[in-house]
Specification:
Blueprint: H1 14-23, H2 38-47, H3 51-61, H4 68-101, E1 107-108, H5 111-119, E2 130-133, H6 139-148, E3 152-153, H7 164-167, E4 170-175, E5 180-185, H8 198-203, E6 206-207, E7 216-217, H9 220-233, H10 239-248, H11 255-264, H12 268-281, H13 288-293, H14 297-312, H15 323-336, H16 339-348, H17 354-359, H18 370-393
Helix pairs in contact: 3-4, 9-10, 9-11, 9-12, 10-12, 12-14
């Protein structure tokens, strides 16, 4: 990358800088551990979900200044993660077997297969749940089979006129006894926008080597496209997602295939954002083509914008979000969109939302009327909201 641009990390605490240096593979004798708030260091390691690889690297770095209680805490987290990953591996194999016996093709998106593929060891990556991708036509059957395995569906998706098919991208299931969450995908990410179809992904699939029963996951270039899109959509607020890119960039990606995917799905700026972040924060070596794409001003602006999330330990899964974070994230998501996707997104605002059905209940046969009524229903909700704010503030 050209030397005329550097990310502004001046607001990063020293604890975060130390963690980044360790994750990036700097030698122990080059690291400065003096004056570190080790409680904050542990908090950062847990927030960013990087404590397994961090513990492994700290063992190798040989920094004598690390307090014993820090290593003990990281060791306990590391050992607990081993048991969790083994549990998830077994459950992943069982679910894939069950779906496969019903002739439902399934691709595992992340989880244990990602840990084995990118890190070479299940213990070096955390995993909160299992993400599975199936064809949308098989979604109902897959849901029924998960129910037979003891999983309960989280009925959080509200829909009108089948907008769930493109506005959302997964449904969630939870197993109470095992404490395992499943995200069953029919898309890689939420719409509107284009992405590779299931059957294209299936043709480029790979076979995992960590299970006896066949478990399939994304091809290397498809995996890169998925991971950078997922990480960008979440503001790279967990460094675990960036370390995944760091590891994946060290594998033999096919430049022609990758370039074709990025151009076709208009995500080159998102990939370049990830390359800038990982090369400058984790010192990931980049190919000449990656460095060339990373010189684009839009990608540099997006990369700088992601530091807002990384530096403040923002948790986008903790709702409701603070108002300032919510506003920033909405702007960030819009900035990530290609021009075509921005147009689709603006047009999608004219498509009825579940809120419209809540505002004015109509028989299903008349749901088509929500299209012409939507502007009026939106205005009515805004008027009610303003009235409520005025009433609470006591303004006359």
């Amino acid at each position: 990358m050209s030397t005329d641009f550097r990310l502004d990390t001046a607001s990063f605490p020293e604890e975060l800088n130390l963690m980044l240096a360790l994750l990036g593979g700097e030698a122990g004798d080059k690291l400065q551990a003096a004056g570190i708030d080790w409680d904050l260091f542990l908090q950062l390691a847990r927030h960013h979900r990087v404590y397994p690889s961090l513990y492994h690297k700290l063992q190798q770095a040989g920094i004598s200044a690390i307090p014993a209680h820090v290593m003990q805490a990281l060791r306990a987290d590391y050992q607990q993660n081993i048991f969790r990953m083994l549990q998830l591996s077994g459950e992943m194999e069982q679910i894939c077997r069950t779906l496969g016996e019903a002739n439902i093709r399934t691709l595992v998106l992340k989880g244990p297969v990602l840990a084995a593929d990118l890190y070479g060891d299940l213990s070096l990556r955390t995993c909160g749940d299992l993400d599975l991708l199936v064809p949308i036509d098989d979604l109902d059957r897959a849901e029924q089979l998960l129910g037979l395995l003891g999983y309960i569906k989280d009925e959080y998706i509200q829909t009108v006129l089948s907008d769930w098919k493109w506005r959302h991208h997964h449904i969630t299931f939870f197993h109470r006894h095992m404490g395992i969450k499943i995200e069953l995908h029919w898309r890689l990410g939420p719409g509107p926008g284009s992405e590779p179809g299931f059957y294209s992904l299936w043709q480029r699939k790979r076979l995992s080597a960590i299970t006896r029963h066949p478990v399939y996951y994304l091809g290397r270039e498809d995996l890169f496209l998925f991971l950078v899109s997922h990480g960008a959509r979440h503001g790279w607020s967990r460094l675990r997602w960036l370390t995944d890119i760091h590891q994946l960039c060290r594998q033999p990606l096919d430049d022609n295939k990758l370039r074709g995917l990025l151009v076709k799905y208009r995500t080159s700026h998102i990939a370049a954002q990830a390359w800038i972040l990982t090369s400058q924060l984790l010192h990931t070596p980049l190919s000449e083509s990656c460095r060339r794409w990373s010189k684009e001003q839009r990608a540099r602006s997006l990369a700088q914008g992601a530091l807002y999330y990384i530096g403040q330990m923002i948790n986008l899964h903790s709702e409701p979000l603070p108002e300032d974070v919510s506003r920033y994230h909405k702007r960030h998501l819009f900035a990530l969109m290609s021009c075509q996707t921005k147009l689709l997104f603006i047009m999608s605002l004219l498509y009825p939302y579940p809120h419209d059905a809540e505002t004015l209940a109509l028989p299903k046969a008349l749901h088509f009327l929500y299209f012409p009524l939507r502007p009026f229903l939106w205005a009515w909700r805004k008027t009610k909201k303003v009235r409520l704010i005025v009433a609470r503030s006591g303004i006359k």
